């Protein structure tokens, strides 16, 4: 798929930094990277940054055998969490726009075009890929079937976000978020685990950052297939994080 940057952007080249936190994704990382590499962005350069969070299933060894040009490989010396991997990636990102990409194939890199366009056009500082917008509701049924607690937990967290921050999000817990580089780096992120997502959202709303949602494709996988997020453990942390940053810095 080719992404066409707005006509007024053709006078200069831009860079899109794609940060991919990875932990034990040996079965999917190769296919994911081949898709990311195949997405062509006219008038823009891709910077692929992979942060392996001390995988133990052969992912690290597989990454070292990659033959992909212009890729930054970073390795943690111990398992520190998704948030820590994202922060490591942000420290190495040099693009004007930054997108976070999970390595599990639940989110489709072919959505990059519609994700970055509101920022390129100057209509937003950040874009959230919503799994609940659009006409296709097939994934909703699959989401409820394979991950009912995650599905309804997401709905509750999104409702809490909208109440606490006077927002209108449909999918707070999405893992497809895009930011202007200067914006995301100004948030001074602290979380090391999955609570990095509500921290980013909370701090973005407190700073009055312009956030726009666009519909994205989503193919949920079950915990048996490798899903790592757990509502009972990570959902409670996320809710606490939303509360904490609402009333403190």
What pattern of helices and strands is seen along the backbone? EEHEEHEHEHEHHEHHEH
Shape: globular
Class computed from helices, strands and strand pairing: alpha/beta
Please give the count of helices. 9
The span between the termini is 41 Å
> How many extended strands?
9
Q: Main sheet?
A: 7 strands, mixed
How would the blueprint of this fold be written?
Layout: E1 2-4, E2 14-22, H1 29-38, E3 40-42, E4 44-52, H2 59-64, E5 71-75, H3 82-92, E6 97-100, H4 112-120, E7 126-130, H5 138-146, H6 148-165, E8 177-180, H7 181-185, H8 196-206, E9 211-215, H9 231-247
Parallel strand pairs: 1-3, 2-4, 2-6, 4-5, 7-9
Antiparallel strand pairs: 6-8, 7-8
Task: Describe the structure in your own words.
It is a single chain. With 249 residues, the chain is an alpha/beta fold. 39% of the residues lie in helices and 19% in strands. Strand 4 (44-52), helix 2 (59-64) and strand 5 (71-75) form a beta-alpha-beta unit. It is built from 9 helices and 9 strands. Residues 7-11 have low confidence and may be disordered. Helix 5 (138-146) crosses helix 6.
Distinctive features:
two-stranded parallel ribbon, 9 helices, alpha/beta, 249 residues
């Amino acid at each position: 798929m080719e992404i066409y940057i707005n006509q007024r952007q053709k006078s200069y080249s831009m860079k899109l930094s794609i940060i991919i936190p990875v932990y034990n994704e040996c079965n999917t990382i190769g296919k994911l990277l081949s898709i990311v590499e195949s997405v062509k962005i006219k008038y823009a350069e891709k910077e692929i940054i992979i942060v392996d969070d001390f995988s133990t299933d052969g992912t690290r060894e597989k990454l070292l055998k990659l033959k992909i040009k212009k890729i930054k490989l970073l390795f943690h010396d111990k398992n520190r969490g998704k948030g820590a991997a994202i922060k490591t990636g942000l420290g190495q990102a040099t693009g004007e726009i930054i997108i976070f990409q999970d390595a599990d194939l639940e989110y489709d890199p072919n959505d990059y075009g519609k994700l970055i366009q509101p920022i390129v056009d100057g209509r937003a500082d950040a874009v959230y890929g919503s799994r609940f917008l659009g006409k296709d509701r097939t994934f909703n049924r699959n989401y409820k079937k394979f991950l009912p607690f995650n599905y309804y937990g997401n709905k509750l967290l999104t409702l809490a976000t909208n109440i606490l921050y006077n927002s209108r999000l449909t999918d707070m817990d999405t893992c497809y978020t895009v930011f202007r580089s200067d914006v995301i780096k100004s948030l001074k992120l602290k979380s090391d685990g999955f609570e990095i997502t509500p921290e980013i959202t909370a701090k973005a709303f407190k700073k009055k950052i312009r956030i726009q949602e666009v519909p994205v494709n989503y193919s949920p996988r079950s915990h048996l297939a490798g899903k790592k997020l757990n509502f009972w453990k990570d959902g409670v942390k996320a809710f606490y994080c939303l509360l904490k940053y609402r009333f403190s810095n």
